[in-house]
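task queued by scheduler; priority normal; single chain, no ligands, no partner chains; default sampling; output format set to structure tokens
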Amino acid sequence: MNLKDCHNFSDFRILAKKKLPSPIFHYIDGAADDEITYNRNTSAFNDVDLVPNVLRGVENVDLSTTIFGKKIDLPFYCSPTALQRLFHYDGERAVGKAAQKFNTMFGVSALATVSVEEISSLIDTPKMFQFYFHKDRGLNDSCLERAKAANFDVMALTVDTITGGNRERDLRTGFTSPPKLTISSLFSFATKPMWGINYLTKGKFELPHLQDFVKEGTSTNSSIGNYFSTMLDQSMNWNDAEKLCSKWGGHFALKGIMSVEDAKKAVDIGCTGIMVSNHGGRQLDGSRSPFDQLAEIVDAVGDKIDVICEGGFQRGTHMLKALSLGAKACAGGRLYLYALAAAGQAGVERALGQYKAELERDMKLMGCTKISDLNRNNLRFRYT
């Protein structure tokens, strides 16, 4: 199977599995506990049917939307994800360049393997920095100041990782950052020699935003779950978020909002957007999917801040349903990470291009020519 054989989300996943050692693949692929929420994130879309209109003159379709004051050409963007250098040696560079080609937003994690300074020098597409609130206040200040100096457009504080989720696949495979060989994983690494060659020869694995402050995850092996549980500040509260918002002084979002109560508080502290998200099902298993929660959150705050639905998207029709409920945009990590692992920048470009083509085709079939044409009259819920 090659890149030209990848026609959808599942194809990219299959090719990624062929390219990556087992611990690395399952880090992307896995989630918390029994992975019920992870699976629900996508299956939720199947409980809603689309109701198309016809004879609407749909020759020209405009997929653009505006989020955080920035117009982007697609109603979806690449969510920030950690450790991308492990999935492909170009890591965040590849994703950022692909996002720029399609003029959509690109998110960079505090646990990124390429610095905000380098990303800013490479691309001028709208950029989001994902902030993790560490116990080390010097680290927090450094991340904020570096992202501000690099002219990032949005700061997104992740609020759903107050402790690490129980990612049992990582426990079984022994996944850590940086990766380490174990007796159980040795065979998997040995059977993916190109990954190992690229990892060792294409530049040193680094976490440039962290390494001057912490050893864990940079020079000392650590699982992501353990990192969240030990390095992040579990006393973080709404006052901390409000102070960070004020200190940033620009577009500010909370990533990981799932309740109406919290969405309203986000407005109160000065946020300009929220990501309705459960961290890809990787934190609290048994929680609702973002799509299941979207309507009530949009009804509560959608006229005050940008509400973004994040997670579970595998098809253009999934995005249509979220946009019809009132999301200003859609976002996800796995929707491009498998493609990154499969073929680097070319893979991400192919994936984004396919989602764009699906959306254009599906919009025409729905009888819509612009995102604002989508509304709840387009939907019927099978279960109420």
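post-processing summary
- The two ends are 42 Å apart (CA to CA).
- The chain has a mean pLDDT of 96.
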